[in-house]
Design brief:
Elements: E1 2-6, E2 22-24, H1 51-60, E3 64-67, E4 91-93, E5 98-100, H2 106-115, E6 119-124, H3 131-142, H4 148-155, E7 166-169, H5 184-201, E8 206-209, H6 222-231, E9 237-244, H7 251-255, H8 257-279, E10 286-294, H9 297-308, H10 326-341, E11 346-352, E12 361-363, E13 369-371, H11 375-384, E14 388-390, E15 393-395, E16 398-401, E17 405-408, E18 410-417, E19 420-427, E20 434-439, E21 444-451, E22 471-472, E23 476-478, E24 481-486, E25 490-496
Parallel strand pairs: 1-20, 2-3, 2-11, 3-6, 6-7, 7-8, 8-9, 9-10, 10-11
Antiparallel strand pairs: 1-15, 4-5, 12-13, 14-18, 16-17, 18-19, 19-25, 20-24, 21-22, 21-25, 23-24
Helix pairs in contact: 3-4, 3-5, 5-6, 6-8, 8-10, 10-11
Bound molecules: alpha-L-arabinofuranose.
Protein name: non-reducing end alpha-L-arabinofuranosidase
InterPro entries: Alpha-L-AF_C, ASD1_cat, GH, Glyco_hydro_b
Family: Belongs to the glycosyl hydrolase 51 family.
Length: 497
């Protein structure tokens, strides 16, 4: 099988926001505790954060971290997580039926984020709380000094403001599982009032209003329209959450998940345009895909949920620690291609989550940390997708899928930054390799693929070995035309300079 990727560099479009390569740390399961933070681990620093995990986080190349939830934020009192640790309360976390010790809070997370080069994107609780508490948190984080809240921050060891710019106005408020779940009108009103008050306090904040929890929600579409009707003149982004899983017997549709994400993003972009036009709003509104990933939710319902919702309130239980395969990594790669291709509309995106909980990084208490297969396409894109996007024309055969119909066997996108080009591609075929050619001036400076070792797309990584990892691949260049062969179910990253 062969494919031709045509790149019209003169038509390079939007610039990729570095914030598209964001991540997410929620107080859920073992993401924080026994994840980034484990004071007794042999690599822990003086603040209790694991050094081995920190190194892997740095290698991932993520740019911004959403915190502290997720569903968790909808019952969270941020004040519990500041001040002397020994005075912090233990609380029930009703979102994940766990006990929250509050050993980690805003100060610790912000210092850790700074140490790994991540901007903090803070979510406020619009489930059990409202505009007043959100504004108090903002005053605590961003006001220089001279008020009770800003001086409390200084007393707690942080003299300079945190200067947090990006704020999520609650989380998934459309979902009946959400603490403080609301109708679109109820949420739209509270989000608008919170936004107004937050802007009075700090006009420079960027605000993300919560869109639907997923594309299949019965309220999808009307939720976005209603919420934006209340808030379009007050917010900078609307969120999209998108998780994909393999349904039994339908690997082909799973491999085509990004076709679903493309359509989801186009629909939300259309709604933004409609509401802006109706309301005569000139300020741009980006899409913040602030939770996305492969997540086997069937497993969540069958294994994690019964295990946790037993009446116990464990500390940092093992929740949704999906073990990712090479196949999952290729799907993650295709979702990245979709996000980059929509750089004109996607202003931010956060791979959910960072460590242990549906994460590219896993670790064991007192033991090793390792990279899941999904780590690698993310790191490629985060390190090399720079500058303007070139959405290619692709001549290739199609594959039949039950969910999305006929889809192209190859998905691809390129970015160009001065004379540095990066091409990302996936081969969605379960059976056929594809010989792919593209034309771009310059010399190939690196090329690698990720696929199942010995064709085993179900291969995984673990504490002792990472058999699913990128390997170099030969690219034949004739003049400016470069040709490589993508194995079945593979991800490729090629750089030309
Ligand atoms: O990332 C796991 C959970 O998925 C988040 O807490 C929630 O926002 C979403 O439903």
């Amino acid at each position: 099988r062969s494919a031709t990727i045509t790149l019209d560099l003169s038509a390079a479009g939007a610039t990729v926001s570095p914030r598209i390569f964001g991540t997410f740390v929620e107080h859920m399961g073992r993401c924080v505790y026994e994840g980034i933070y484990e004071p007794t681990h042999s690599t822990a620093d003086a603040a209790g954060f694991r050094g081995d995990v920190r190194d892997l986080v740095r290698g991932l190349g993520a740019t911004i971290v959403r915190y502290p939830g997720g569903n968790f934020v909808s019952g969270y009192r941020w004040e519990d997580g500041v001040g002397p640790r020994e005075q912090r309360p233990r609380r029930l976390d009703a979102a994940w039926h766990s006990t929250e010790t509050n050993a980690v809070g805003l100060h610790e997370l912000a210092a850790w984020a700074e140490s790994v080069g991540l901007e903090v994107m803070e979510a406020v609780n619009l489930g059990t709380r409202g505009p007043a508490e959100a504004a108090q948190l903002l005053e605590y984080t961003n006001h220089p000094s001279g008020t009770a809240l800003s001086d409390w921050r200084r007393t707690n060891g942080r003299e300079a403001p945190f200067g947090i710019r990006v704020w999520c106005l609650g989380n998934e408020m459309d979902g009946p599982w959400q603490i403080g779940h609301k109708t679109a009108d109820e949420y739209g009103r509270i989000a608008a009032e919170t936004a107004r008050l937050m802007r009075f306090i700090d006009p420079d904040v960027e605000l993300v209003v919560a869109g639907s929890s997923n594309h299949e929600m019965p309220t999808f579409g009307t939720w976005e329209r209603t919420v934006l009707t209340h808030t379009a003149d007050l917010v900078d982004h609307i969120s999209v959450h998108a998780y994909y899983e393999e349904k039994p017997g339908d690997t082909a549709s799973f491999l085509a998940s990004s076709v679903g994400l493309d359509a989801y993003l186009d629909e939300v972009a259309g709604i933004i345009d409609e509401v802006r036009a109706e309301r005569g709003i000139t300020r741009p509104i980006g899409i913040s895909v602030d939770e996305w990933n492969v997540w086997n939710q069937t497993r969540w319902n069958e294994v994690d949920k019964p295990a946790v919702f037993t009446g116990d309130w464990p500390e940092a239980p093992r929740l949704i620690e999906d073990e990712y395969t090479a196949l999952d990594a290729v799907v993650v790669g295709s979702l990245l291609i979709s996000l980059i291709s929509h750089a004109d509309r996607v202003s931010m995106a956060n791979l959910a989550q960072l460590v242990n909980v549906i994460a590219p990084i896993r670790c064991e208490p007192g033991g090793a940390a390792w990279r899941q297969p999904t780590y690698f396409p993310f790191a490629d894109a985060a390190h090399h997708a720079r500058g303007q996007v070139v959405v290619p024309e692709i001549e290739v055969h199609t594959l039949d899928t039950p969910r999305f119909g006929a889809v192209p066997a190859i998905a691809s996108v390129a970015t160009i930054d001065e004379d540095r080009l990066a091409l990302f591609a996936v081969n969605r075929s379960l059976t056929d390799a594809a010989t792919v050619s593209f034309t771009a001036p310059g010399r190939v400076i690196s090329a690698h693929v990720l696929s199942g070792p010995d064709g085993n797309v179900r291969a995984t990584n673990g504490p002792d070995a990472e058999p699913v990892a990128p390997r170099e691949i030969t690219v034949t260049s004739e003049g400016a035309t470069h040709t490589l062969t993508l194995p079945p179910v593979s991800w490729a990253c090629v750089r030309v300079e």
